[in-house]
Design goal:
7 helices, alpha/beta, two-stranded antiparallel ribbon, Spore Coat Polysaccharide Biosynthesis Protein SpsA, Chain A, 244 residues, 12 strands
Length: 244
Amino acid sequence: MGAISHVVPARRNTSKRDDITVIILAANIGYGMKSYGPKTLFNINDKETLLEYQINLLQTTFFNCEIILVVGFMADRIIRKCPPGIRIIENQLYETTNEVEQIRLALNCTLTDNVLIIKDDIIFNQQTLQAITRDKACLIYDSGNRIYNTNIGVTIVDNYATIFAYGTKNKWCHIIYLTKKEVKLLKSICNKRSLEKLYFFEVLNMVLERSGKMKAIEPQEMEITKIDTSKDLFMVQNENINLN
C-alpha cells in the first residue's frame, strides 16, 4: 500500500549494465519552493530540467545503470517529463512520510547490491561522480562552503565518516554510495516501521553504529550546488556555474 511502480519505456540497450542502482529521491514537496512545482522539473538552463541533467550525467558516468526515481508531490507531472528507461516508484503517502520511506520503497525494488542515493535538488559535475569508490561505501562531502552551513554535516576521522550531525564544518552533499554490507544494513533499518519517522541522516548514523563504514571523499574538481530557494535556482540559471 502507498506505492505504485511505473516504467518509462527504455530506448537504450539494457543487455549489459553497470552493477549499480541509482536512487533519486524526488517525492517530497519542498515547502520553500512549493509554488514553483517539483524541484526536479526546474529548468537549470535553456536545454534541460534538473531531472534531465542528473539522468544524462548519471548515464554517462555509469554505463547503462539502473535508475529508480521516487516521486510523490505532483507525480503525474514528473512521470510525463521523465526521460526514457527510468523505473519510477510513486510514494502515495509522501505528505505524511519522509526520505526514509522513499528509500525503503526503492531498496525493496533494487536489482543490484551497489546503490547510489542522491537528492533531486543537487546539481553536480561529472568529476563529482567519478570520485566515487566503486569497491566500498562512500559519501561526498564539501569543506569549501559550496553547501550551506545550515545543512547536515559529517564528522570525519581517518577519511571515514563517524557521525552525521548539524553544526560541523564538513557538509554532506546528499550523495552517498553503499555496497553490499551497508545496503543490507540500510534496508533492514528502513523496513522497521517504528523508525519510519527518522531522517535519512539519522538512519545513516544507525548504519555506522552497526559497523557500517563509509569513506568520506571531497573530489578535487567538484562543482556542486543545492537548490533550497529561488535565489539558488536563479544563480544556477544566470551565473554560469560550471557543471560540465
